[in-house]
Design brief:
The complex is a heterotrimer of chains A (about 110), B (about 600) and C (about 100). By secondary structure, chain A is an all-alpha fold. Chain A has five helices and no strands. Helices cover about 85% and strands about 0% of the residues of chain C. The longest helix of chain C has about 35 residues. The chains are: A mainly alpha (about 110), B alpha+beta (about 600), C mainly alpha (about 100). Chains A and B meet through helix 1 and helix 4 of A and helix 15 of B.
């Protein structure tokens, strides 16, 4: 669950770092620098989520954690696509919520 | 403006500027010999062509393979639901040795001369003890399902259950004791390789793969929406598709690509394939003899089961036992092989312990340990998804559905583009002359090939879901004592599919139109949606019983069937004839409404202006 | 892959490339897996060598298919698949010939 939430936040950052989706979400054109920052943040978040997934709670082997992360990666990408298509204005907020919830979920072993 | 005036079937160019430039340069090149310029664009064009045709040739079969494979993720649940006699089995303590002992005693009472048996112990997805047994040297296995508490056999109805989807998926099985399994596997292999090529060429040819990563514009309608759907369903789940396809090729590599084995395992007396199979499993070749038909094997002796089970549990320190097997090895000694539960790790096959059957002494353990064999095992295990818990399983199921959707949108997109091209070609060559007496324009018939593909699209993409629903329904409706009951259920499946094909062909010939899609999808929606009702009328494992009792394995099946029926019904409703074309279709949210453009020769739909 | 007209010559070229991709590509992949298996078996267990070579051969097959439709002419498709396939096949069966000759 934490993998999905963190990946959702990460992909959202990447999406918001693209001209088209940034405009849809905020109604303004994004400055090139800002977009690049968002995309970089997205990549970093992805890497973080992978690292966290490779250190799962309980007795779960790392290989299963990484596999679950790979699945969550795609599910989250689909979720972000749905969000930017049908609820573009809510994307930034949802991304923030997902980030916080994801970190909390990992801390609690989900 | 159509994207390409040449018969090379490249997909719609993204930017109009590029289109104009391409057309111009194409025209300039048209005077020269057929040539692909050695630059990025030429490579992309070539891969685009390859992608289209690799996908199209066996696209309909790929859809069938992918969809039945997707359903197979839940084959255990289907197996259970389609044997309502298994309802009510109490879960047992997995570590209780009495479970195996009672089942074995019951088996030996039934088949005193049993020569080999494989016993799957109950787990969270299957509450019964399943035994495969035979009393011959090399014959087929029979199956027995036993109550885990009493060991007695359960008299369940004859059906292939979820195993039909599973076996159709990888060997195109058409009968319970089908004999064309090798040929079926070959055909599936060809389709898999084509999908592999289509995936890779698709990635190469997708010019804006990063920019369009999250882009989905269903409101645009026409080719744009279909292409977006194809791209989104294709790219976002790409790791899964690549894994599934590649692992599929590797699972049957001994059949598809034996050259390496034939070379490296060549010995004095030809190729020692037994040694290869043993190495693959991480075991010694003599522990598993390969017998020829007609070989005689001595029946098994009495087996020291309790001590074997105890020692196995100790050695695995808490690991679950998945199955037990008793057989005679190549030297004729009776051995028991204890296999760990498949859900305990990614790598397939699970580790095994070998014991002497009569005295219960531990002999050996088998597990593949080299890096390449482990990689192979992990690929295999990822494909089979035995490791997946319920959450992951539903996610993988969703990926499978998206893969089927990716294939489906690809095939429909080709039809849409092709019909758009022939429409503009037809209007260019002045078919304005084709007016009927009242001054209206008679729809021109699309070329035969196009109509055929459109018909196959309907027959497969709508017909297969219908056939699956009919198969599940037949499980409740075919009389229990029917002769060859399992094959009767399959006959219902193939007949429904055949009817869909006839309907589609009739539509293609007689009256191309949206009804072609709407009717089979509507029928499918009806069948799936009625499954819980049919279930309630014919058994006592219906929602009225299973929901209050919280039996989620049973109830979720009925609920999923209902949801599927609703979804298919909704699709059918959106595609019904009489829905106003193009103007309203473009304004509607779902991309499906632009299926209006998917049908050949409907002159009131001008696909080509929809942003292609 | 561009064409001027969909005539018999075009269809022949396409068919030729397709056969080169499907048949020639398979021959190349098989030859590759055989030769590499033999080579790797010198320094790792046989099963490891075979699996590594076989897994890589699928990528070779896909690349060959891509090549067959990218090269300038249909002859190029055959040159890129069948020729290397024969060479690799010879490498893979060389020990056999050498033993027979000895």
């Amino acid at each position: 669950m934490s993998a999905f939430l963190l990946c959702f936040a990460a992909w959202s950052a990447m999406a918001l770092g693209m001209d088209r989706h940034h405009e849809d979400a905020t109604g303004r054109e994004g400055a090139a620098r800002r977009l690049q920052q968002l995309r970089r943040a997205g990549w970093l978040l992805l890497l973080l989520s992978l690292w966290l997934a490779a250190h799962p709670a309980g007795g779960m082997p790392a290989s299963l954690g990484v596999t679950a992360w790979a699945v969550a990666l795609s599910v989250a990408a689909l979720a972000v696509t749905a969000t930017v298509t049908w609820q573009p204005h809510r994307t930034p907020v949802l991304a923030g919520v997902a980030l916080v919830a994801g970190l909390a979920a990992w801390a609690w072993g989900w | 403006m159509t994207s390409s005036t040449l018969p090379s079937q490249t997909p719609a160019e993204r930017a109009p500027a590029a289109t104009a430039a391409n057309t111009a340069s194409e025209a300039a090149r048209s005077a020269k010999k057929p040539k692909a310029p050695n630059d990025r664009e030429g490579f992309r064009q070539a891969m685009s062509w390859l992608h289209t045709w690799a996908g199209l040739i066996l696209g309909w079969l790929l859809f069938a393979i992918f969809l039945t494979g997707t359903l197979s993720f839940f084959k255990n649940e289907f197996n259970l639901w389609m044997r309502p006699e298994m309802h009510g089995l109490q879960p047992v303590d997995a570590t209780d040795p009495q479970v195996a002992q009672k089942a074995l005693d019951a088996l030996v009472r039934r088949v005193p001369n049993v020569t080999q048996w494989i016993m799957h112990l109950p787990d969270d997805r299957d509450p019964a003890v399943n035994i495969l047994w035979r009393d011959t040297g090399n014959g087929r296995f029979e199956t027995l399902r036993m109550n885990p508490q009493t060991g007695e056999a359960i008299d369940a109805r004859q059906t292939m259950g979820g195993d039909f989807f599973y076996r159709f998926h990888f060997e195109l099985r058409t009968a319970q004791k089908g004999r064309w399994t090798l040929e079926g596997r070959w055909v599936v292999g060809v389709a898999t390789m084509l999908m592999f090529v289509a995936l890779i060429s698709g990635v190469i040819t997708h010019r804006r793969i990063f920019k369009d990563f999250f882009t989905f514009r269903p409101t645009k309608g026409g080719q744009r929406a279909w292409l977006d759907a194809h791209n989104v369903s294709g790219v976002l789940v790409l790791p899964f598709y690549l894994m599934i396809t590649f692992s599929g090729l590797m699972i049957f590599h001994t059949l598809y690509m034996p050259a390496g084995i034939a070379t490296a395992y060549k010995g004095e007396n030809g190729v020692d394939s037994n040694a290869y199979f043993a190495d693959l499993q991480g075991e010694k070749a003599e522990s598993r003899p390969r017998r020829r038909p007609g070989d005689k094997v001595e029946p098994l002796p009495a087996i020291a089961l309790p001590s074997i089970l105890t020692e196995a549990r100790t050695r695995w320190d808490g690991g679950r036992i998945g199955s037990l097997q008793a057989r005679r090895d190549a030297k004729g000694r009776a051995v028991v092989e204890v296999t760990r539960h498949e859900g305990d790790r990614l790598q397939y096959r699970p580790p095994r312990l070998l014991f002497d059957a009569s005295i219960g002494q531990w002999l050996d353990q088998a597990d593949a340990t080299g890096p390449a064999v482990k990689t192979y095992g992990v690929l295999y295990g990822l494909h089979m998804a035995r490791f997946a818990d319920i959450g992951l399983r539903w996610a993988l199921f969703g990926f499978g559905l998206l893969g089927s959707l990716m294939i489906a949108t690809g095939m429909v997109l080709w039809s849409v583009k092709r019909s758009a091209k022939s429409q503009t070609q037809a209007s260019r060559t002045g078919i304005a002359a084709n007016k009927d007496n009242r001054g209206g324009v008679v729809p021109t018939m699309a070329p035969f090939g196009e109509r055929l593909v459109a018909a196959i699209n309907i027959a497969t993409l709508a017909g297969l879901p219908l056939a699956c629903g009919v198969y599940i329904a037949s499980n409740r409706l075919v009389p229990l004592n029917a002769e060859g009951r399992a094959d009767v259920e399959l006959a219902w499946f193939f007949s429904a599919w055949g009817l869909a094909l006839l309907w589609a062909l009739a539509c293609a010939v007689v009256r191309p139109g949206r009804m072609g899609w709407s009717v089979p999808l509507g029928a499918a929606g009806l069948v799936w949606g009625l499954l819980p009702v049919i279930n309630a009328l014919t058994t006592h494992t219906h929602l009225g019983v299973t929901l209050p009792a919280g039996e989620w394995v049973w109830a979720s099946m009925d609920l999923a069937f209902l949801a599927t029926g609703l979804l298919l019904g909704w699709l059918s409703w959106r595609l019904r004839p009489g829905l106003a074309p193009k103007g309203k279709a473009a304004a509607a949210k779902a991309p499906r409404t632009s299926t209006a453009a998917a049908l050949p020769a409907t002159p009131d739909v001008s696909v080509s202006t929809s942003g292609a | 892959m561009k064409a001027t007209r969909v005539n018999g010559r075009y269809r022949l070229a396409i068919t030729s490339r397709a056969v080169a991709a499907i048949g020639g590509g398979y021959a190349l992949a098989a030859g590759f897996s055989a030769a590499l298996s033999l080579l790797l078996a010198q320094c790792m267990p046989r099963v490891e060598a075979v699996l590594t070579a076989t897994m890589l051969s699928w990528v070779v097959y896909a690349a060959a298919a891509g090549w067959a439709f990218y090269t300038r002419t249909a002859w190029g498709a055959w040159g890129g698949t069948l020729l290397p396939a024969l060479v690799l096949g010879a490498c893979a069966t060389a020990p056999h010939w050498m033993k027979a000759a000895a």
